Predict the 3D structure of the following.
Amino acid sequence: MGRDEDSVLELHAETPTLSAPFKMFQNLREYRHLLRHFISRDLKTRYPGSIIGWGWSIAEPLALTVTFYILFAILSDSTDPYRPFNILVGILAWTFFSRTFSGGTTSLQRNSGLIQRIYFPREIFLFSGAGFQLVQMLLSMIVLIPLLYHYDLIPTMQITLLPSRSIAHWNAWPWIGILHQHRSNPCSGHGTYVTVALRIGFYLTPVFYNLDMITQSRIPAEYSDIYLYTNPMATYLTMIRCAFTGEPLGISNEHLVVTISSTILIFLLGSMFFMRKERKAVKNI
């Protein structure tokens, strides 16, 4: 089996580092039918022809929203007029991010059987997982409609950018896990590190509270810049919220530029590394 796999891989020349991102998009375009197939397969598995599957998928975010709403009502004097809505949006967005991140870090291991039987670009697994999670998040956002009606909210034109913003806030982080995947093995404890990192990130990111609670009151003003620079998720999540509520973003253009630039940079470096180390990663699964 190993010999067959090596002979298949040898037919494909190693991609030059600088052209790796372009090669990756070329592969996605060429294998787009396979990408759609994997997304469709995951959706059929998640929602097996019944609305019950969709109901279970939104049960957790709704339960967390109620929990954090009650907690804030007891412990906080925040005057946020859209608190339940903002909490639910935050939880849906974070769920999308965390699942694509954790799924991306183990995408090759989970599909090792298929990888060892036939060759096609391995980044298909990463992007199909992200596509599935994006569709699932958009389906889950149907539960926002009653709250939009209750608060008389009319989403701004920025709502049309929601898919691109969602993809952007996902785009960088799985590549950090991919950087580690080529040297990991199933017993390395990598999954534990990811779980702990996501748990810490959940509380340090404005998921169930607004960004201004951090930048305007909880930390000194001189540390607000550091917080935003080191936590791009705070920026992306706030952008998604404001697209629904129409509230001012409250983030400077400088922070936006740094966040988007760092996302692009991580994607470029991660894709270059992945395309160069893909063969080694396959051997270690």
